[in-house]
Amino acid sequence: MAASVSVASSTTNLLNRRLLSSPPCRTTSAYKNILIKPYQQQCFLINSSNKKSPRSLAPRVVNSSRKLMNVDHQHDRYLEDDKPREECGVVGIYGDPEASRLCYLALHALQHRGQEGAGMVSVHNNVLNSATGIGLVSDVFNESNLDQLPGDMAIGHVRYSTAAGSSSMLKNVQPFVTSSKFGSFAVAHNGNFVNYQLLRAELEQKGSIFSTTSDTEVVLHLIAKSKARSFVLRILEACEKLQGAYSMVFVTEDGKLVAVRDPFGFRPLVMGRRNNGATVFASETCALDLVDATYEREVHPGEMALVDDINKQPQSMYLLRPHIPEPKSCIFEHIYFAQPNSIVFGKSVYESRHAFGEILATESPVEGCDAVIAVPDSGVVAALGYATKSGVPYQQGLIRSHYVGRTFIEPSQKIRDFGVKLKLLPVKAVLEGKTVVVVDDSIVRGTTSSKIVRLLKEAGAKEVHMRIASPPIIASCYYGIDTPNAEELISNRMNVEEIRKFIGADSLAFLPSDSFRRLLGSDHTNFCYACFTGKYPLYPSAAMEESIDDTMKSTIGQLGALKLPL
């Protein structure tokens, strides 16, 4: 460790020049056009020389952790196919002799963020030990392989996949481990680098060989190629080249744990502490709760937190000083992705969703309503808010079956809406002859919503009034969320009345954008609304700009109704 001390001291001046020791002051005057043209800053510069990138580059960069949601209209295999998907969840634990078992529990708490693969890396006696697999956390880990992950520090990851092939999926399961002339290290990443293809092409031209299709592998190559002697500086150099969303945790063979979050703060990352002094980083506070860690704070946008033998308390540094952007945290964490018991971006997810439901009840009431029901599970809290504000009782008109596997056998004689019927069970005693308000978090393609309305009416509901606890989704996300292309988004192609007719509801209302803004108050500028507006805080690489421009042209007519600030 003496060598580590000398390396750290030899780079002090460089760190002082390139890092801040406290969160930067953020002002808004410099960001008037941040949603209109690509943001330009040293860490995120989109090189004008790439404006004419070859059309051979894919028009839409996707995280390798993604499974594009191509719905089979004859066989709805998963109810979630008509929802955006969060890509990943990450965990980092330092200073606990049972780090791997705590990491296992924390990953279990984050299972909702990724259900098709899980992995963990622990550090013991300067050796990185890794275990990864396909499936749920409980499928991947057991007593036997947890015993093979000793040490007092570990990082973990849960993910979604890009393809059905298990061999391809396994190669892309994180954390990724690599060796360099400075030693071995591992990384777990939640987010999406919008300049991934450009970086990968550049690295391959210089001789790098990639073994996965994950954008996260770019980070390994950038760090390995860095000439900086300090691991922290090598991460910093890599982050200067990255554009997009990233909440990452790293471990090194010499006992360092580093957590870093992009300057826009797109994806969440929190820090907590156990009674024994162990430090825990996680995507959500629900993971802290399960391992008896007390929530302390967010990892700030642009912050890099280091914990090691020298710095038992996390030491914070910040990315480059010039042009620190205004935070643009993903609002969909509060609408759909995060667990209701989590605190995300400093706000209670439960309270946010309850308030969304109250707004819907105030602005879109239904006369003569007999019951308020939710599309479980993500619509439940908003439905409770609607019921509380309207005075109409909340009832379980739909019960979700939690015992349906990822695959199932369908009878040869096709059953209409088979996938939805497997997942959602209507309660006729609640529905028969009743006028019901159905609260859901969002409508993406509209296919599942139409089947839910039909299911409720077949169960005897007299009238079905849909209330959606978010504004209409009219644009794709490029910051680590799996969303369809814009042309597949029903709100991009239809107005509210057309959608109502398509899904067969008696009425339909979305959360009004201006009320949405008022609820967030002075913090409303700190969130990303690109999926509602088509206006991006940070554009993807130049090869993708044309497709984004096309998206904005096709959605510009919707923007006036959304009433969000440009």
From TrEMBL:
Organism superkingdom: Eukaryota
Catalytic residues, chain numbering: C88 (nucleophile)
Record SUPFAM superfamilies: N-terminal nucleophile aminohydrolases (Ntn hydrolases), PRTase-like
Sequence positions that bind [4Fe-4S] cluster: C330, C477, C528, C531
CDD domains: GPATase_N (cd00715), PRTases_typeI (cd06223)
Single GO MF descriptor: iron-sulfur cluster binding
Catalytic reaction equation(s): 5-phospho-beta-D-ribosylamine + L-glutamate + diphosphate = 5-phospho-alpha-D-ribose 1-diphosphate + L-glutamine + H2O
Keyword Protease among UniProt keywords: no
Residues involved in Mg(2+) binding: S378, D440, D441
Residues annotated as signal peptide: none
Pfam families assigned: GATase_7, Pribosyltran
CC cofactor note: Binds 1 [4Fe-4S] cluster per subunit. Binds 1 Mg(2+) ion per subunit.
Cofactor(s) recorded in Swiss-Prot or TrEMBL: [4Fe-4S] cluster; Mg(2+)
Keyword Iron-sulfur listed: yes
Single biological process term from Gene Ontology: 'de novo' IMP biosynthetic process
Keywords: Glutamine amidotransferase, Glycosyltransferase, Iron, Iron-sulfur, Magnesium, Metal-binding, Purine biosynthesis, Transferase
Biological pathway: Purine metabolism; IMP biosynthesis via de novo pathway; N(1)-(5-phospho-D-ribosyl)glycinamide from 5-phospho-alpha-D-ribose 1-diphosphate: step 1/2
EC number of this enzyme: 2.4.2.14
Residue ranges of every copy of the Glutamine amidotransferase type-2 domain listed in the record: 88-310
InterPro entries hit by this protein: GATase_2_dom, Ntn_hydrolases_N, PRTase-like, PRTase_dom, PurF, PurF_N
Family (UniProt): In the C-terminal section; belongs to the purine/pyrimidine phosphoribosyltransferase family.
HAMAP family: PurF
Name of the protein this chain belongs to: Amidophosphoribosyltransferase
